[in-house]
Amino acid sequence: MTQSVPLFIDGEFCQSQSNDWIEVTNPATNKPIAQLPCTLDEEMQRAIESAEKAFMSWKHVAVSDRARVMLNYQQLLKEHHDELAEILSQETGKITLDAKGDVWRGIEVVEQAANIASNMMGETVENVATDIDTYSLIQPLGVCCGITPFNFPAMIPLWMFPIAIAAGNTFVLKPSEQVPLTSIRLAELFEQAGAPKGVLQIVHGGKQQVDYLLAHPKIRTVSFVGSVPVAQYIYHTGTSHNKRVQAFAGAKNHMVVMPDANKNQVLTNLVGSSVGAAGQRCMAISVAVFVGSAKEWIADLKTEMAKMKPGAWNDQDAAYGPLISQQAKTRVLNLISEGKAQGAVCELDGSQCEVEGFPDGNWVGPTLFSGVSTEMSIYKQEIFGPVLVCIEVDTLEQAIELINSNPYGNGTSIFTASGAAARKYQHEIQVGQVGVNVPIPVPLPFFSFTGWRGSFYGDLHAYGKQAVRFYTETKTVTARWFDDDIPTGPNLTIHLR
Ligand code: NAD
Question: Which CATH class is domain 3-250+451-479?
């Protein structure tokens, strides 16, 4: 018997009464590890009502007390770091190192959430007119919700609910139906950290449950991370219901390789950033753009990539784990076939990959294409697998034009020894997160995660100051105090609490 994943409603981990259940599998074996309920409408309603009720008291809790919950949570997450990584590995197949990184990047956001007071400071101008001051207050909105993808089950929920809740809101999370177990453990630890009943709720399911959240009048904001078509749907549907929406979508991230770059650094970083986590990262490098003679390194790149072997989560020698599902594997294999059929040179083909002891896992070996053109589907589509495509151009200007013509704008990097080339690149490239000799430039949470163009729908990004803005409203107060009203005389007393 596999476990059934509980809902977390009104401070209780409870079983859904649903008759509609989804199997959660371990991607290394495709064996079921849990059953997930598609939450009933009345259960969804109960979660939102409880979050609304909790908001009525949580919004009055002192900001320093809200921050203290985050400090406790950070401590507990650190204590349970390895245990969380193990749960996460079971449901994603991630190797231990990647799983620990997933948890750690989430902990860093909780640290930032503990700093909430300084991010909720308003502004003041004294004497906007005689005896009149104007100042702004940053106030929470109410019930916020989050809909998260499969590929970072700890980090991405932690991008959302700690900052929303630290800012004084309450939160309903709908984790990916493929990886719900990490979220449940995150919620248990949050409760232990002292989060009051109802500030965090967890519901499960797919489109139907998401639609319920998108249409519910009490939901004020929607934070989404996932694929492009769903991000567009969430953005349009959520905003049409007058909600504030931030929707982080798919990507096609390019690394520009200049001929003056450090070759060893290029090869090591290209391999790690393209096949690491089986390429299932929204910031994975999936296109290498070789400028001029740098293309001569493709043969060595192939040698280095061929050394990367996938394997089970606890295999110390494995470079990465399986794809999330059989469906994802089939999709990636179809794209590899299309690449070959459309005339790209398949330098390294991972489509026939096997891992000893795990005959049923969703394995794909490292795959490298050269001679790729921008019309090919392996260039146009996000593959989300351990597949790197190589494009050759003559100049940096051509590289910039190519990347700016691609609809996505999540991340990019340039490897070069030239400060001038790096500066031109960072200035002209229309991508939100740029690395200079850094392959995956995900900013730490005191900045924000800043995807652009087709990789993001909305205005305010995740974590950092922008997330606090997203989860709050600004109120301005204009106040006039009359000198005549100042009390005088012996009965003037000051009451201190
Ligand atoms: P997905 O879009 O399939 O699912 C994401 C969430 O949306 C899940 O919770 C799912 O239940 C829900 N969902 C799925 N279909 C829906 C529908 N029709 N209507 C409403 N909700 C629906 O994404 P995924 O496969 O879980 O994640 C991989 C994708 O996420 C990739 O495209 C990746 O690039 C992207 N991603 C982006 C970022 C970023 O920051 N830009 C970060 C991580 C992942």
Answer: alpha beta
Tokens 């940053």 correspond to: 138
**Contact yes or no for 108/77 (Cβ under 8 A):** no
**Residue ranges in the chain modelled with pLDDT below 50:** none
Cα angle, residue 381 at apex, residues 29 and 416 outer, rounded to 5°: 100
CATH code, residues 254-407+411-436: 3.40.309.10
Q: Which of 20, 152, 176, 280 to mutate to test the pocket of ligand 1 (most atoms within 8 A of CB)?
A: 176
Check residue 489 and give its pLDDT: 73
- CA within 13 Å, CB half, 337: 7
Kindly report the protein residue whose alpha carbon is nearest to atom 8 of ligand 1.
176
pLDDT of residue 496: 52
Contact 477, 137 (CB under 8 A): yes
CB 143 within 8 A of CB 45: no
Which of the listed residues 39, 92, 159, 230 should we mutate to test ligand 1's pocket, taking the one with most ligand atoms within 8 A of CB? 230
- Decide whether any atom of ligand 1 lies within 6 Å of the 207 Cβ: yes
Distance 247 CA to ligand 1 centre (A): 10
User: What pLDDT sits at residue 491?
Assistant: 65
Q: What is the pLDDT of residue 49?
A: 98
State the pTM of this model.
Answer: 0.96
| Centre of ligand 1 from the C-alpha of residue 218, in Å | 23
Domains of the chain, residue spans: 3-250+451-479, 254-407+411-436
pLDDT digits (tens, 9 = 90+) for 186-220: 999 999 999 999 999 999 999 999 999 999 999 99
Is 282 annotated in the active site?
yes
